[in-house]
Sequence to fold (386 residues):
Amino acid sequence: MFLLFKIKYFSGIIIYIAILIIILNRISFYKFGEYNYLCCIIIYKVKFAIMEIDWKNLPFGYVKTDYNVRTYYRNGKWGELEISSSEHIDIHIAATVLHYGQEAFEGLKAFRGKDDKIRVFRCIDNARRMQSTSKGIMMAEVPDELFIEAVNKAIKLNKRFVPPYGSGASLYIRPLLFGSGPEVGVKPAKEYFFMVFVTPVGPYFKEGFKPVDMLITREFDRAAPLGTGKYKVGGNYAASLTSMEKAHQGGFANVLYLDAREKKYIDECGPANFFGIKNNTYITPKSDSILPSITNMSLIDLAISMGMKAERRPIPIEELETFDEVGACGTAAVISPIKRIVDDSNGKEYLYGNEPGPISSKLYNKLLAIQSGDEADTFGWVTVIE
Ligand SMILES: Cc1ncc(COP(=O)(O)O)c(C=O)c1O
Fold:
C-alpha cells in the first residue's frame, strides 16, 4: 500500500514537471521546444501507470470503477437502463429502503481467461434469486433480460477493471434493488431503483485457500425459522454483525449458526453455506432460513459429476464429529476449508486438519478452472461477454 502511495506521489511530481515544461515553452523567453513531444509521452505513460492497479495485492473491498448502470420502476414498469459515472444515489427521505428495509442485493463474479475473454458465472441464477427475494419482501421484480443486460453492460463499460488472468483477482458484480418510493405507513413502495456496479476484488482470504476456524455460538441467530434467511436482504447481514464481531474477537473467521428454532442443526456459515464430506458424499444443510448458495449448487453438481453422492438434509450438530472435511462456500471465496470448529457453550472442539482436504481441493480447483475458462464448462454456467 505504501509502495503504491509512493509510486503515485512521484508519478504526480513527474507529471507536474512535464506540464510545467510545456507551459514554459509557450510563455517564457527560454524555450525547451525539443522536449515538448517527450513531455507529452511522459504524461501519457505516467498517467497510465498511476491508473494501473496492483492486481496481485487487491483487497476484497471497494475500488472505484468508471461507470455503473441504473434504472427505475415507475407507474408499474421498468424504464431504460441509464449509464452513470457517479458513485452516489439521490434518495427520497421517505423511501421505504431507509425506513422499512425494502432492499435486496446480489453478488456474482466475472473472470478474465487465458484467452483474454471475460466470462461471467451463472448470472441467470442470481437474477432468479433476486426475483425470489423481491417476492419475499414485496418489491418489484427485475426481469431476467433486464438483469442480464444490466450486468453485461456494467462489465463491458468497465472492461479495463477486469483483472488479468492468473492474478487471483476477479471482477465482483453487485446488483442492488430497493424501494425508492416514499411511504410513511408500513407498506411496500410503489417505485423501485435497480442498479449494477462492479469493483475488482482480490481473493476473499489474503492467505489464499487455507483452512479457517469457525465459532458455534447460541447467543445469536442470523434469521428466524420462517423469516428472511432465505432471501438476500440487507437486514440479514445487519443482524449478523454482532455475532460476527464476537467471532472475530475470538480469532475465528466467522460464526457457524445453528437452526434458530431448536439449536440442534447446522444452518448458515457466516455469509456462506456449510458443507461436510464423508463416505464419498457431499452433505449440505437443508433449511428454510439459509440462502440458496449458487456456489453450493455448483459444488453439488461437480461432486456428482466426480462420482460422489450428494445429500441436502438437516445436519445435526453431533454429526460434525463424523466428517472428514468441512467447509464454507460462496461466491467470495468459492470454498473456505474449515480446520477447527469450537462450540462456545461447552468448549467442544471439532478438528479437521491444518491443510485443505483432498476433495475440497479438487472441487475448488475444478470450479475455478470452469470459471476462468481453463476447463470446458459442460454445465452451461459460464457466459462469455462479447
Ligand atoms: C448468507 C449467505 N449465504 C450463502 C452465500 C453464498 O451464496 P453464493 O454462492 O450464491 O455466493 C452468501 C453469499 O452470497 C451469503 O451472503
About this structure: The helical segments are 2-27, 36-51, 96-100, 123-136, 144-157, 234-249, 294-305, 358-372. The chain has three domains: 3-49, 57-201, 212-372.
